[in-house]
Inverse folding.
């Protein structure tokens, strides 16, 4: 079943285009990583999905328009925007009471059970908790909601590695049951690599990659090329090349013929971080190339006009 | 995005969800406002405590020191209107402060993202915030006045009875003034002031900073333009009319306790005052604006 469906999703802030008519759909039971550089449009896309910002184009989340039906949608959707948004004045017990009072799918006993595994006291105020504890508290509240879609926008920002690991472990072991769908954006891509079922790269308001992890494994290959094979490898038109410890690492798209690549060196599936850098660089160079070509064409056209005058 | 082929999604039942539990979003929204803004209840209670303390020390002391029985009775009757005005003021001022802060504070501390992650509509959120100055504070301050003044009266009755004076007329007058106060609160504080509080909430939902200044700026600008262009002060007069009650604004009457402006108005006359319904229309427009702004606003 399709959980999110977007067609021509567009959002502008003045002259700045945050989302440039993107199309995508997300199916039930997936854990989708939405990855992109700062200002690429990740948070704008998530805000549109969560009904926090108006948009142009078509967007349906669980069959509803999120902009006009946010409050109804939030019965089935949860989100954590970042670790610092729980009200600082509130006590833990007050938050539990409040969420229980307003959310028809909140199971307080479940939240209490999650909190029992932590050192968070019911009488503590949010302002007195450490950043990691606030993240644990927020996660306990969210995991006790029987939601269909969970959206995480940089949920572990500023947390130390122990809390970050704990966060994703809890999410996978105690929450995700494959009937739920999770969308996560983060800059710490290595930490979510093992969690994701799908990957979406976004750059300058456009989706530049959208594949399941299986498809990513089948499509991309990274080859550790020895110097004598470098020119042969380059001839196969890699999308990215980098140096590591004196050896060249080339990343190939549409790398279906693995035996051909294996002859050039060690073949690996690239990490999300390496793939991200490769795709982003490739896209940037591609668009710069187009821009340069366009500018050269304009210049030559001008010269031509000058010659005819 | 192609996600059909991944094995994790295959062979698992789709999400069904249990039955939706009954919830009370409005009640809990009001409750959390009171939890967050504890000064709303603490300030009138603190002032009531001070008033009661003052009554014990000063009024009872002065009454007992008065040699004349009539003077003693006059001293004991003296502080009621003052205590009422004091407690009402201690509720009115926090109401103004709260309204200016209510929709701005949640954007400033980013907690708006948490509140919006829950199934509570923007209309419920705004109305729950509006109910604090319009419903909670008037009724809460009435309960405090009732409690404080009945305590004061019980003590006065004991003092008077010890001197062989019947305190019955004092109680009759007390119940009458409580009835008038309740009428004043229900009409002026809950209905007449609705556009004022709704306007403050609208500014609170719009301004990025200095909400107090933004709230006062339009009034100041209109007053200045009118004064410089026409030499008149009709707008200032209208503001006074809106803040003092549905009677022609009279500068000489400004020193009176606001309650007195209402005592001679019947409910029917109040309900047919054009200013009431005009104010209600403006209140509805301001609330509509505040709801729309809250929907599109995020953290500052």
């Amino acid at each position: 079943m399709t959980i999110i469906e977007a067609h021509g999703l567009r959002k502008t802030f003045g002259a700045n285009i945050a989302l440039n008519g993107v199309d995508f759909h997300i199916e039930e039971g997936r854990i989708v990583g939405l990855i992109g550089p700062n200002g690429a449009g990740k948070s704008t896309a998530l805000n549109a999905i969560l009904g926090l910002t108006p948009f142009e184009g078509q967007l349906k989340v669980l069959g509803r328009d999120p902009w006009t039906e946010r409050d109804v949608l939030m019965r089935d959707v949860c989100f954590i925007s970042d670790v610092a948004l729980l009200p600082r004045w509130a006590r833990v017990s007050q938050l539990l009471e409040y969420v229980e009072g307003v959310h028809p799918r909140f199971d307080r006993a479940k939240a209490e059970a999650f909190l029992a595994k932590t050192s968070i006291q019911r009488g503590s105020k949010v302002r007195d908790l450490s950043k990691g504890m606030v993240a644990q508290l927020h996660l306990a509240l969210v995991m006790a909601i029987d939601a269909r879609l969970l959206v995480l926008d940089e949920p572990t920002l500023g947390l130390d590695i122990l809390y970050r690991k704990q966060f994703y472990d809890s999410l996978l072991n105690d929450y995700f049951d494959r009937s739920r769908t999770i969308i996560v954006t983060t800059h710490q891509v290595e930490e979510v690599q093992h969690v994701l079922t799908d990957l979406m790269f976004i750059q300058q308001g456009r989706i530049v990659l959208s594949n399941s992890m299986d498809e990513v494994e089948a499509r991309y290959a990274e080859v550790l090329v020895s110097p004598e094979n470098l020119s042969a490898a380059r001839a196969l038109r890699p999308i990215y090349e980098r140096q590591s410890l004196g050896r060249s690492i080339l990343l190939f798209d549409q790398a279906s013929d693995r035996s051909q690549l294996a002859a050039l060196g060690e073949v690996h599936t690239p990490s999300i971080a390496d793939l991200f850098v490769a795709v982003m660089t490739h896209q940037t160079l591609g668009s710069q190339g187009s821009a340069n070509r366009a500018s050269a064409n304009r210049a030559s056209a001008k010269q031509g006009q000058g010659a005819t005058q | 995005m192609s996600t059909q082929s991944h094995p994790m999604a295959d062979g698992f039942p789709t999400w069904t969800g249990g039955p939706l539990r009954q919830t009370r979003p409005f009640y809990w929204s009001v409750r959390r406002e009171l939890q967050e803004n504890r000064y709303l209840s603490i300030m009138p209670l603190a002032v009531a405590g001070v008033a009661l303390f003052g009554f014990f020390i000063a009024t009872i002391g002065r009454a007992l020191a008065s040699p004349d029985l009539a003077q003693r009775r006059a001293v004991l009757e003296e502080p009621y209107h003052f205590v009422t005005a004091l407690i009402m003021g201690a509720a009115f001022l926090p109401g103004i402060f709260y309204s200016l802060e209510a929709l701005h504070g949640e954007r400033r501390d980013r907690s708006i993202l948490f509140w919006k992650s829950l199934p509570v509509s923007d209309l419920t959120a705004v109305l729950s915030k509006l109910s604090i100055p319009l419903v909670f504070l008037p009724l809460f301050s009435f309960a405090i006045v009732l409690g404080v003044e009945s305590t004061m009266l019980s003590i006065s009755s004991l003092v008077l009875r010890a001197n062989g004076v019947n305190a019955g007329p004092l109680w009759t007058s007390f119940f009458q003034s409580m009835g008038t106060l309740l009428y004043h609160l229900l009409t002026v504080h809950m209905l007449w002031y609705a556009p004022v509080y709704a306007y403050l909430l609208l500014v609170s939902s719009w301004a990025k900073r200095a909400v107090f200044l933004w709230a006062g700026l339009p009034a100041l600008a209109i007053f200045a333009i009118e004064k410089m262009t026409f030499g008149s002060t009709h707008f200032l007069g209208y503001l006074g009319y809106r803040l003092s009650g549905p009677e022609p604004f009279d500068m000489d009457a400004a020193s009176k306790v606001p309650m007195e402006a209402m005592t001679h108005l019947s409910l029917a006359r109040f309900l047919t005052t054009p200013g009431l319904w005009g104010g209600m229309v403006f209140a509805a427009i301001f609330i509509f604006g505040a709801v729309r702004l809250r929907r599109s606003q995020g953290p500052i």
